[in-house]
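Interim report, section 4.2 (structural modelling).
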Amino acid sequence: MSAQEITFGKAISAGLRAALAEDEKVVLMGEDIGTLGGVFRITDGLMQEFGPERVVDTPLAESGIMGTAVGLAYRGYRPVVEIQFDGFVYPSFDQIVSQVAKTHYRTRGAVPMPVTIRIPFGGGIGSPEHHSESPEAYFVHTAGLRVVSPSTPQEGYDLIRAAIASDDPVVYLEPKRRYHDRGPVDLAAPLRPMGPAAVAAAGTDVTLVAYGPLVKTCLQAAEAAAGEGISIDVIDLRSLSPIDYGLIEASVRRTGRLVIAHEAGRTGGLGAEIAATVTERCFHWLEHAPVRVTGFDIPYPPAKLEHHHVPDLDRILDGVDRALGRANSLDSIDPFAPPVPLAADGTERA
Amino acid sequence: MGSVSLNTPPTGMPQVPEPDLHQVLTPDGHRRPDHDLDPWLQDVTAPMLAGLHRDMTVIRRLDTECTHLQRQGELALWPPLLGQEAAQVGSAAALRREDYVFPSYRENGVAYLRGVDPLGLVRLWRGSTYAGWNPAEANLAAQQIIIGAQSLHAVGYAMGLQRDGADTVAISYFGDGATSQGDVNEAMVFAASYHVPVVFFCQNNQWAISEPVSLQAKRHIADRPWGFGIPAMRVDGNDVLAVLAATRRALERARNGGGPTFIEAVTYRMGPHTTADDPTRYRSAEEVEAWRAKDPIDRVEAYLAATLTDADRDPDGVGPLTVERVREVSEAAADQMATALRAGVAELADPGPEALFEHVYAEPHYELERQREHYRLYLAQFDGEQLEAGAR
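Predicted structure of the assembly:
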């Protein structure tokens, strides 16, 4: 182990460099990734090092980038596509969902799609509209894709290498507000599989599941809770599709309580999926209904409002309190009137 | 890399779009001189024309058989190519084996010429599989139903060819409707910017289901690529020689580092969009009849009738080559294909439920494995039970 302290961004960059060096079929494509080195500088220096045929500045057309990546994969290449910001991925949505995800199935395995789609995602950096979104549920819902999100520089390095090495298409979600965080990275680490989740902090009272940017916040919450004598088992998913339910279930069977945190809106989000699956499989071990701490079901708000939207340490701790049924939580206050079924005309029944 | 360098703008490109429709065989079978296309037709002989006639006849029969099979309940759907035989045969005949084709869903004639077993097409349109063929064996990508999406795949493939320094070309087929899609326009941007060896082959068959081409384009489709820096040619798509020549010209240009070319093959979809469509709701019988007079097979026969002499010998026989003999050989080939197809259809079995889960991923996916196993156990509960047909 020869770990060195580098930033999250540099760790991803090192993973890309390693992949380019290891396999000549790896081609990086994206807007501003060549001469400029990417708007976040993740590909800084790579075009100069590997040439413009392997680190390709593309026209400003996301569907075009994704569709040509499909064609390159048909030719035996392993394209690594950078979508500049989360909110810019939608023009390429058709190529991702209908082509990248389905070509292997369509051809009964004759044409693999080893395409890696890098997307800086999530909020917290004071950006304009379309620069802070969390679109992971769309991709998790799409059969044929794998989805991963690292939470530490080491994971950033490991997962990008594993994603590029995979014969399946992988959506790699980079927690952009953690790009400048530093951490130890072993650049000589062997290739690790993408699937397994990790215990970020061991605990016994509550299972707290998160991924990407919120893992750090959850670790801070666990530290704060420890001061009150509450022991939180923080699970870092790493892989969002498939999800390593084995680790989550083992934890929930010990703690009996589950909290899931993500920045994305609640409805149809990963928290809903994890809560449902864990409830199906661990119903008799649960001491409380699973609790979700998420962004609201709103478009990502303007920068001056985002601190309300993105779950922070206090909201995560509130969720933990709810899962524990503590007196200071909203559960004990119950501010909600019982829901009223809607009448056939859409109005609320009297 | 070969001599092709990236990011080099196209050179030697004519500045003025060619305004006319290129045609070398008139509908009544007369040979017209064409300055641009004639150099690419120097090797045309009577046996070669007979071969093109045979290919067009066979794919017309394949198309007709599949329409019948759909009516008989053997296929779920079929997208007829009737009327577009010259566009498909002329272009496919120009390709080398290693050239890579990115088709839409209507290029079943092209697929046949790439060596795809017609029974594979039947299985595909029957709903037994999405894989009617192995792309790697036929150098033919999977059929594409999303309109125009494959144009980008062809450009990406050509970017790979460029990096490999390969003497190979990618060709994308699409229709007039697809030219309105963002993907086709983005494909032209990428192709022009990177100067890749790709041919855009647009079969303008006048109709995108019920929408006439005038709704997609206010000028000729072939006018549009020029704005992207891509030379384009508008050819009579019912003229197999014009299509062959134009495609050869574009392929050779791409092979020699000349970059992308766009071909608009002006043709007509004589049948419905698919067997689920009723074209009488949106177009007149007169229009269809006017195009029937431009039939691609008839005009080859008319040309042969006008030009064959006793000096043209039947390559397979001892007598002279006649139109009757050409027709006879073509029909025999069509009969042979159709007989084999019918026999194969009778043998087709439906896929088992295990095929549901296969190849979703290339690598193991434990949550999907769980669903597969659960469904297997669920079905196993019914083992031994006498279920009524169709109950499962």
